[in-house]
């Protein structure tokens, strides 16, 4: 695994426990692989965080993702969770969004053990469906039609921007990062509403 550069925004780092919690509840993992020709490829996959690994699946039919996994087992994936957009300063660019994300670097492998594939499917159904509609539980007649992958994390980094309290948002508080900037005065070609007049 390549060595990572130092984290620039240490104030946004999540604790290991919070990163694991986000991995447990996240909706989609975007998995980056590299092909034999060196070209990157990103695939969005449903997944479960189980026993310290990220497990996901797709079709057993050969495709781009499987070809890349066969070519190189190092992968990187991200799970993110967007929040509310908020203003923090007096200029149009003084806007941010509350969000959290976890980046995982690791090694991917194909799961051949049927018991683990069964356990993965049970966990996947519990995470994404979790409704009892009267169908047989734990019966997956197409288990051999899917490929299950497991990513063993070598490095997990979580970052978040929390939604500030209303008292810490603009206009109650001006937190612009360019406090000395002065907005230009409206020109004569603009109407009273601030929008440009048509010629």
Count every helix, treating DSSP H or I runs of 4 or more residues as helices. 3
* Residue share in helix: 10-25%
CATH homologous superfamily designation: Electron Transport, Fmn-binding Protein, Chain A
Task: Provide the domain count.
Answer: 1
Q: Within the largest sheet, what's the order of strands?
A: 2-1-5-6-7-4-3
The stretches of 5 or more residues where confidence is low (pLDDT under 50) are none
| Second-tier CATH architecture | Roll
Note the gap between the termini: 60 Å
Question: What is the CA-based Rg, rounded?
Answer: 23 Å
The oligomeric state of the chains shown is single chain
Q: What amount of the residues lies in strands? A: 35-45%
Strand count: 7
How would you spell out the order of helices and strands? HEEEEHEEHE
Largest sheet at a glance? 7 strands, antiparallel
CATH topology name: Pnp Oxidase, Chain A
CATH class categorisation: Mainly Beta
Structural class: alpha+beta
Average pLDDT metric: 91
How would you describe the shape?
elongated
Pfam family, one: Pyridox_ox_2
Protein name: Pyridoxamine 5'-phosphate oxidase family protein
Organism: Reyranella humidisoli
């Amino acid at each position: 695994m390549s060595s990572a550069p130092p984290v620039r925004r240490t104030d946004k780092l999540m604790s290991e426990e919070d990163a694991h919690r986000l991995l447990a509840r996240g909706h989609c993992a975007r998995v980056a692989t590299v092909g034999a020709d060196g070209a990157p490829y990103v695939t969005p996959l449903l997944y479960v965080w189980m026993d310290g690994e990220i497990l996901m699946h797709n079709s057993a039919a050969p495709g781009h993702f499987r070809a890349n996994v066969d070519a190189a087992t190092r992968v990187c994936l991200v799970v993110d969770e967007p929040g509310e957009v908020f203003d923090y300063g007096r200029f149009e660019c003084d806007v941010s969004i509350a969000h959290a994300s976890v980046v995982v670097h690791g090694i991917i492998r194909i799961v051949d053990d049927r018991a683990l594939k069964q356990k993965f499917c049970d966990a996947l159904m519990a995470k994404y469906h979790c409704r009892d509609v009267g169908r047989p539980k734990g019966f997956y007649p197409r288990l051999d039609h899917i490929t299950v992958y497991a990513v063993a994390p070598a490095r997990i980094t979580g970052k978040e921007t929390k939604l500030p309290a209303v008292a810490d948002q603009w206009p109650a508080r001006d937190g612009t990062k360019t406090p000395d900037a002065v907005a230009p005065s409206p020109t004569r070609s603009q109407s009273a509403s601030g929008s440009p007049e048509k010629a």
